[in-house]
Amino acid sequence: MPIILPVDESSRVAEVRRAVAAIALNEGLGDSLAGNAAVIATEAATNLLNHARKGEVCISALSERGFPGVEILALDQGPGIQDISRCMSDGHSSGATSGTGLGAIRRLSTEFDIYSQPGKGTVVLSQIHLPQDRDSGSAPRSILRVGAVAKPIAGEQVSGDAWAMSECGAGVHFVMADGLGHGILAAEASAEALTAFRRKQETAPVAILQNIHRALRGTRGAAVAAAYLDFDAGVARFAGIGNIAAVLAGPGRNHHMVSHNGTAGHETFRFQEFVYPLDGHALFIMHSDGLTTSWNLDPYPGLRAHHPAIIAGVLYRDASRNRDDVCVVVAQIRAKT
User: Is beta strand 235-241 parallel, antiparallel or unpaired with respect to 144-151?
Assistant: First the structure.
């Protein structure tokens, strides 16, 4: 699961750098790329202090999404950037710095993206990974990009919210679990749900849900949802128990997916699959109840076209309830080439 570190004083910069370097090495990137990741982490965290006074850095292992690498997502609610293209030029600085921060981050990143609104804040994305050969890779991966943010409630070291994805045929499975309550017992329930998902690899969301329900009988239980994005059929298949929300978001319209009441592992009333068309929907968004369901992408001009990690970061930053574990996953569906 991602690590989210606050950046509110200078000592935090070294903490972020060490965490990023450790994950990069653990992902098998080697000394050179791990060194690049450490430089990016330093620049991103320093920018938060210099320009926003404070913020957070979310660090994720990209192996959770099917390929080794490290992702650095820097988020703030600071003054934002008036002219991003100018700020990307080396030598430009709005403070007493050399002005090489964003330029260095972009040069050293395998993938880079940035979204900013004056007065509302900035989200900067950097991914460092080995080159991915799209031509020889799987069809689902060439169609889909995924971003995610997850964080435990304040005061807990582990989160009861967890998610996983898996390619299957011409599509991709997503599962999310929200263990009842918080802390270690909630985390154990959600971890058991993901273990059951990976062990069986069923194709139908209802079958996945039923397997997870049986696996969670010895735990405190969880809200669980399973989705399958079937690119050949052009549909999303979804089944849920409890308060995991899922939305197919397109310009001007959203399809909110239906979950039934209950708790996986304990009392459930109905397992049912719902099918939704993917046509015209560029985003699949799934989240726990740590995120308010009243979020809206319309006040963020151009956000839908950005990397899904940026979108997940904006939703986490601006729509978290701040009184629960939170997990949000965004899958961006790109047109077939």
Answer: unpaired
- How many CA within 13 A on the CB side of residue 145? 17
Quote the pTM value. Answer: 0.92
d(C-alpha 37, C-alpha 222), whole Å: 36
Confidence tier at 91 by pLDDT (50, 70, 90): very low
Contact at 8 Å (CB) between 325 and 288?
Answer: yes
Task: List Cβ<8 Å contacts ≥24 apart for 21-28.
Answer: 23/59, 23/60, 23/61, 23/70, 24/69, 24/70, 24/128, 26/61, 27/61, 27/62, 27/63, 27/68, 27/69, 27/70, 27/129, 28/68
Residue 62: CB atoms within 10 A of its CB come to 21
pLDDT exceeds cutoff 60 at 298: yes
Q: Write out 209-242 in H/E/C secondary structure.
A: HHHHHHHCCCCCCEEEEEEEEECCCCEEEEEEEC
The position carrying tokens 């039934």 is 260
Q: How far apart are CA 178 and CA 45, in angstroms?
A: 30
CB-CB neighbours of 18 under 10 Å: 13
**Mind listing the pLDDT tens digit for each residue in 152-161?**
999 999 999 9
In 3-state terms the chain splits into helix, strand, coil percentages (rounded to 5) of 30, 35, 35
Site of tokens 């997916």: 257
What confidence category does residue 42 fall into, taking pLDDT thresholds of 50, 70 and 90? Answer: very high
Which residues lie closer than 8 Å to 281 by C-beta, 6 or more apart? 248, 249, 250, 255, 333
Contact 300, 330 (CB under 8 A): no
